[in-house]
Amino acid sequence: MPYSAIVTSLPSLIPFLAPEAIERKLGRPMRLRLGANESNFGISPQAAEAMRKAVDRIGWYCDPENFELREELAKKHGVSRDNVVVCAGLDDVLSLCARAFLDPGDFAVNSLGGYPTFNYGVHGAGGKLEFVPYKEDRVDLGGITEAAHRVRAKLAFVANPDNPSGTWHESGPIHELAKNLSETCTLLLDEAYSDFAPSEAIPPIDASNPRIVRLRTFSKAHGLAGARVGYAIAAEETVQNINKIRMHFGVNLIAQAGALASLRDPNFVAGVVEEVARGRAEYESMAATLSLKTLPSATNFVAIDMGCFEDAKNTLDNLQERGVFIRMPGAPPLNRCIRVTVGTAGERKQLAEELALVVKK
Description:
- This protein is of the alpha/beta class.
- The chain has helices at 5-9, 19-26, 45-55, 67-77, 90-101, 116-124, 141-150, 171-180, 236-243, 253-263, 266-289, 309-321, 345-359, and strands at 32-33, 84-87, 107-111, 128-132, 155-159, 186-190, 212-217, 230-233, 293-294, 301-305, 324-325, 337-341.
């Protein structure tokens, strides 16, 4: 069949092994789902009600402009509506950015073992990737800058706070990174976990800068991962070009209603952030009782240092056999860790019991 050269050159890969796939393989459901950095704290009651009401209108098409949601997001971030583009999850935004900025053969830069869906989007656009290892368990901003110049990259991807480490940089070094990239290189700043981060980790938003694209999501603190709503804050020119290739009906009517209502319920999100902070502290104490350390985290998950790859992999496999879904980073030096989502108080108690049994083996 006459498939495109880009598609035929790609291996058959998926960015993540879903818990549902693991359940099908094991033939039983997971008892604890703590691997995908979803929110286990539910959604805003206001969002739930708005989504229920939207079901009655599901026979209609959704607003392809995401007008009301973009208006509310622009107000929240102090930018123009024309600086906001809403897409079907942050992964959709990443793929669209790869298509918007890369010609086949152009390079993009990511951390080695960093968020893999960016890589997926780059490959789908026919781009090439240059990887920079983590430095002291954090994204190596200097290494990203050097690599971007060396390969003449068109895109540099940085998640801050980072996934899968949970660590972060303050806004000053992020600003310096953006300033030091070449004029032909755009920084994609993934801030999916910004709700959980200290204020000093989030640079002020300057939507007039065409060389920075800020990426946010409703999948984490808002708890709407299954609704698939993500967005970018960028210069008007960037938004206009993404709109040329965006699937305009991609964010469905129910998802738009839920995201808008959740955005208007900041107290709910604040409560989730508070409970996640409490859970991170519990995970740190849990690890200490097992003579393990945790990486500093400004996200809704914690990376627990198991000492080496073999111990991390054995822990993951043993927990999985016991019906506990977690994940681990895919590349050194972080692949000595397991990564565990902060669950509810009851889930955290169960995890502590299961981990203690597995580590003592």
